[in-house]
Specification:
Order of helices and strands: HHHEHEHEHEHHEHEHEHEH
Mean pLDDT: 94
Largest sheet: 8 strands, parallel
Helix content: 40-55%
Low-confidence stretches: none
CATH superfamily: Aldolase class I
Number of domains: 1
Structural class: alpha/beta
Strand order of the largest sheet: 7-6-5-4-3-2-1-8
Number of helices: 12
CATH class: Alpha Beta
């Protein structure tokens, strides 16, 4: 990595040389380390703190064609007060919706501190013109979105057209204005850990505030080894540039046990500075209920019934 980062995107060949010059990922080692960290046990007070931290990191998400304004308002109410019977439960980090529902979420969350995130750039495929992607981003930001979750063109990336992907991220970042940009790599389609590392660096060089694993629409979605590779990338990027970038695994994280595994992974890979909703998020729809059930179990000694918490 001898080329200055300011110059790596000066030409397709320079960008390709830089990305393919990154150290390769030891797949066996990454899998083994992620599996080992996933066996760590956290109990009692530390577990309660981990659950509350995980709740504060959740991007409560609804991204379905059947979404309605009423569903979004109900989700926003839950985001602010996850357990109506327990005011000590913290609010989540953000609510993530489609661009046409941003205004509804903004109205419902005004003054709460919970952010509104919106997917854009032709989510989940990323297959449209740059003009359409930029216009959609601007519409979401104009409606009040504080965060934009964009998807990269995986076809372009896998074909080696890294400069196209870079330029689309740069243009989307510009369209975000003051909103934070999360760049979704859709790691389930990238095939190799080396590609995950390259895509992570590409997104960060282009200006991403966060790198995100998945749309949640492709299997596999988030996995511990892939998130490990991304956490190593943000750690190394900070060392190389002095700029800190967040990480968001999304899709398939459903239980408290899963969430705690990710928190351990963050602490042991990027470090405790990333154990903050400003730098680590959990993209999920069903995770919050399990966190609430486990929290109540620790407080009362018994689980709530399956109909105690709302279904999202």
């Amino acid at each position: 990595m001898t080329t200055p980062l300011a110059e790596v995107a000066s030409s397709p060949s320079t960008l390709r040389a830089f990305l393919h010059g990154l150290p390769g990922v030891d797949r066996v080692g990454a899998d083994a380390r992620a599996a080992m960290l996933g066996t760590r046990s956290i109990k009692t007070t530390a577990k309660k703190q981990a659950i509350d931290l995980a709740i504060r990191m959740v991007d409560l998400t609804t991204l379905e064609g059947a979404d309605t304004h009423g569903k979004v308002r109900a989700m926003c109410a839950k985001a602010v007060r996850p357990d109506p019977a327990d005011s000590s439960v913290p609010p989540v980090a953000a609510v993530c919706v489609y661009p046409d529902l941003v205004a509804t979420a903004v109205e419902a969350l005004t003054g709460s501190g919970v952010k509104v995130a919106s997917v854009a750039t032709s989510f989940p495929s990323g297959r449209s013109s740059l003009e359409v992607k930029v216009a959609e981003t601007r519409l979401a930001v104009a409606a009040g979105a504080a965060e934009i979750d964009m998807v990269i063109d995986r076809g372009a990336f896998l074909a080696g057209d890294y400069l196209k992907v870079y330029e689309e991220i740069v243009a989307t970042k510009e369209a975000c204005a003051d909103a934070h940009l999360k760049v979704i790599l859709e790691t389930g389609e990238l095939a190799t850990y080396d590609n995950v590392r390259r895509a992570s660096w590409l997104a960060m060089i282009a200006g991403a505030d966060f790198i995100k694993t998945s749309t949640g629409k492709v299997s596999p979605a988030a996995t511990l080894p892939v998130t490990l590779v991304m956490l190593e990338a943000v750690r190394d990027f900070l060392a190389a540039t002095g700029r800190k970038v967040g990480v968001k695994p999304a899709g398939g994280i459903r239980t408290t046990k899963d969430a705690i595994k990710y928190l351990v992974l963050v602490n042991e890979t990027a470090g405790p500075d990333w154990l903050d909703p400003d730098w680590f998020r959990l993209g999920a729809s069903s995770l919050l209920n399990d966190l609430l059930m486990q929290r109540q179990k620790m407080a009362t000694g018994r689980y709530a019934g399956p109909d105690y918490f709302t279904l999202d």
